[in-house]
Every structure is written in C-alpha cells, then in structure tokens.
Amino acid sequence: MRRRTIAILVAVASIAALVPAGLTAAWFLLPGIELAPYAVGRASAAAGRGVAIESLRVTPGRNLAVAARGVRLANIEGGSRPDMMTLASLDLELELWPLLMRREVIVTRAALDGLSLLLERNADRQRNWRFKEPPPQAPTQPGPDPESRRDFPMIHELRLTGSEIVIRTNSGQALRVRLDSTRLAAPARDQPVRLLANGAYNEVPVVLDTTLGTYLQFWDVPEPFPLDLHATAGGDTVLTLRGTATDPLNFDGIQADLAVEAPTPATLLALGGGGTGPAVPLRLGGRMERHGDLWKLAAVTGAIDGAPLAGPLLQMAEGGDGHADRITAQINFTRLDLNRLLGTPARAGGAPAEDADVPLVVEEKPDPMVEARLTAGDLRYGQLRASEARIQAAIVEGRIVVDEFALRAFSARISARGQLERRGQEVGVLGMVAMREGDVETLRRAFGLRALPVSGRLEARVIVQGQGRTLNTAGRMANLSAVVAMSGGQIQREIIEMASTDIRSLFRTPRGMTPVSCLLAVAEIRRGVGEVAPLRIEAGTGTIEGIASFDLNRRQLDLVIGSRRDTTNFFALDIPMRVSGSFADPSIRPASWSPEGRAKLAAGDTVAAVPAELRDFARGNRCFRVSEGTAVPAAAPARPARNTRRAPPPQRRGSRR
Hints:
By secondary structure, the chain is α+β, with helices and mostly antiparallel strands.
C-alpha cells in the first residue's frame, strides 16, 4: 500500500512538472508550427464556404500575434467570380488575457495588405457577405439576431494598404473602390472611432475623413449609430454626410443630412462613369435616407450655375435579379441655361450661342432607368428664351418617352409629346407639337421676317418625324406636317385690295385694317423644304387664297396669292400676286393663275394625307372647305412632304390666262 501511494504521488508530481514544461515548450515551439492545415477546416465550417490559407502562424506572448498569408474566401453560388475575398497578408495582435478569460476579442493592432473584397448578390438576392446561419433555437428560446453587432471585435488600430473593394449592383455594374492607405483608430471603447482613407472611386482620387460613434454605441444594437463623414473627390468636390445608421456595417437604415459642393460637375460625372461636363458650379443638399434597396434624397435644395433649385424628391431603387436600377427625380430650376450646361460659348459681344446642341442617346438596356419631372422658370437653349418650362419623361428599354413638354416662348404656349427610339447608330424622333396663343407680330420678330400686314392670335399643330445623333441634326432632317390657324384678327385693307387687284387702288391708298374671320394654312416640310396648300385668309372685304413653297435652310419663299372672285367687289380684277425671294426682303409683283391652279383653289381642301390630330384641327377652322363627295379616313399616318407643287411663273403685264 505504501509503495502504491508513493508511486501515485510520484506520477502526479511528474505530470505536474511536465505540464508547465509542455506549455513552456509549446510557447516557444508554436511560432514554428504551420497552423494553416488545421485552421482551414474549422474556418470553412464556421463560414459555411471554402476557405484557403497558404500560411498561418501564431506567436504567444502578452499579446497574441497572428500572421496569415494567401487567404482566400469562396464566393456564394452564382457569384460573378470564384472568390469573395483574397488577402495577400494579415498581421494582428490580440490581447491574450481577455481572450482566455472572457472570450472577448480585442485587437490592439492589425495590418492588412493586398485585400480584394467583392460585395454582391446573386440572382436569388442572396448577399455574399452573409455567412452560415447558426442552427435554429428551440421554440421556447429566442433566436439570435442576425443583425447583431455585439460580438464584433474591438479594434484599436487598423491599417489597410494596396487594397480594393468592388461593389456589384444588381444590374451587374461594378463600383470599384481603391484603398491605397486606410487607418482606423479607436483609443477606447467609449471614445469616437476615427477613419482616414486615401484612394479612388472609379479612378477618381478620394480622401475620406470620418468620425464615427463609439464602440459602446456600435454594440448597442437598438440605437442608431452616429456617422459624420467628410469626403473630398478629385481635389475640388466636397461631400458631407451627418446622421445615423441602424445597420452601419451594411450602410443601411441611414437618416442623414447630405451636402455636395462642386466647382464643376466634372468630378461627379467621373464618379458615375460619365464625361467631363460643363464648367459651372453645383451645390446640392437634402435629407438622405436608405432602407434596403431604396435610396432617397428628400427636400432637395441647392443651385446650379448660381441659379437656385429645389425639389421634393430624388430617389433610386436598386434593381433585383439582374434588372436595372430605377431613378425618380422631381427637380424645379429657377434658371436652366442649356448653352452653359452644354459648354457652348457665347458669341462676341455676349450674344447668345447658336450652335448649342443636345446629343441624342438611347440605350437598348439603360441602367439606370429614369423617370423625371423637371421644371424651369427660365430656360435658354441656342437662341430660344422660354419661361414656365416643364418636362415629364422616362428612359426605358430602347426608348425615351416624353409624356409632356411645355413652355412659353415668343409669347405663345408650346406643348409637345412624343418619343425617341434607337435606330441603329442613330435615334428616331416622333413628336406632336401644339402652339396656342401665338402672336403674329412676336413670331415675326423671332424668325426675322419683315413686317407683316396681319395681326392676331395663331394656333398650330405639328407632327414631327426625324432621325439623327443630335437634336439639331434630327430637326434639320425632319419631316413635318403642320396646320396653322387663326380665328379672329386683322389684316390691312391695302393687302386685300392689292391681292384682288382692286382698280380703286389706282386712285387712292386704302387705310386701316379689316377684320379677319379665319386663317388656315396646311404645310408639309421635308428636310427644311416644304409647301403650303391650302393657304386661305377670310377677311371682311374678301377671301385670299394661295399656294406657297419655301426653303427654311436658305430662308427663301415663293408664294402666289390671290382673291376669290365670288368674295370681292365689282372693282376687283382678281389678278394674283407673287411674293418671292428671301424671308427678310421678298419681291412682290403681279402673277396669274393657271387653269390647274384655279381648279386646285376651287376644289375642297385635301387633308387626308396628314395625321388624324391635324385633320381634326384643320376641319375645326372656319376657313376649311370640304370637298364634295370626298370621304376623309378616320386615321392616316404622317408621310414626308413632297415638294411637287410649284407656283406658276409671273406673266407679262397685260396677259391673262
């Protein structure tokens, strides 16, 4: 018995002596042991995905040092690349005592180099940054909060170099963030976290200076986490964001004030992958919110090129399952100078630019899709000066649909609707334009015409079909069908007597104006060259009818106009007049009607070739004359104008056909 007792005591003493010796040996031998083969399995099981590590070594001490090389984390199924993350090197130190006693992870220092992190969702909307969920709890026990941040380690200092983060949107667009050098510092758990970063976004240099809440606030999950972000992009564009986030790791649950100051939009366009933009200052701000896939900027205020702007809403909804993002914008501009925004310089002496042009771009699969409602108190484009402008349009697949475009210009109210559609390398334009309350004198001055003998209010309806790569090109090459009408107005008595060749005008000059009952003109224009027929003015002393051809490119016209015999008095010879030459200074001389011309004027008005909207508008005018026995179809597409009608040549004095 005594010998057995002694043997047991010796064994216990030996074990007690071997344990410290073993721990001491492990303490010194552990740094030389390659732990990667042992860690890979446990890490893969914990993440629910494949993990690969080329090298992993641990050095014990007061702080536990961990060094890892060649780390890879597999992506989710359906991801755009095999690995969600690759890391060239990781060196960190952890406080050993809290780790052993309380299983609390406190990182005193961490350094990462060559990190490439991809954040995306697959077609099933699964996030690749969500890892293996823990097993479900019993019904009587509450399950763990998947958004919990309570187990997130405290990091006193973190340095990141030579790294990148790629965020792939649901439509497949890659947003690339380059991190040249990043430092995160947190002196204590009750002091704010400071984040400094230098890098680039879409190759635009960015400097970030952010003050976050404390770790105590971060771990307090129900409470919003404070954010105070200050970023400078391209050296001149400043963005500030001050507010809170309920899910800061995913930058979600945002409620913050956003402000952007930019001397030009060039940097902002470059951040979005666009061009350089105009040299005009931009200021924008509002209340930013983000909840899941929905980003909002409400109560928008700011200025562009010094002109204030405001809007109730600027919103983006991230698309799902490979669909494009959707942007909804409602912005009100006090002044919108497209000449400045398009970078078109003014002419000498400060005169307005004439060559302002809008490129026409329609994408087959646009991303994002846009729905916009914009207004402008003052709109400038080329030589156009307009007020009360508004547009409601949408960018959809293969088309831009304009539901409403309206403005006041040349004292008239102009409205339009239509669409632009992709046609190979060019864009097709189809639109319906209406003019109301147009004043003859104001329109004359706007288009550089000489004084006209007619005054009153005009209305017009126009169907436009064109194609080109820019708005001006499409306009110059467009085919138009137009109806111009007047109900009420005045015309000089001299014109009626001149058009009817009243012999009394040989002995006196008629004075004053005579009322105009109606005016009607139907025009077809092809690439700036067109004709007008019928052209009819019904006045108190007679009815004038005519046929005209014109060239808007050369600013030339050829008009033959005369009176109807059954509407003039006994002294009228009813000899037509010809007006030809430049718009600004045409010549006027006697002419004559050929039998074909008189037959054409005597016949009813043929408007079956123009679209239904124009037919209905023309038929509502008192000057419209229906052909007997002619049926007008219910609908007919617009067709290009044919410049086949020619005004008859003037006859020598004394001749009559």
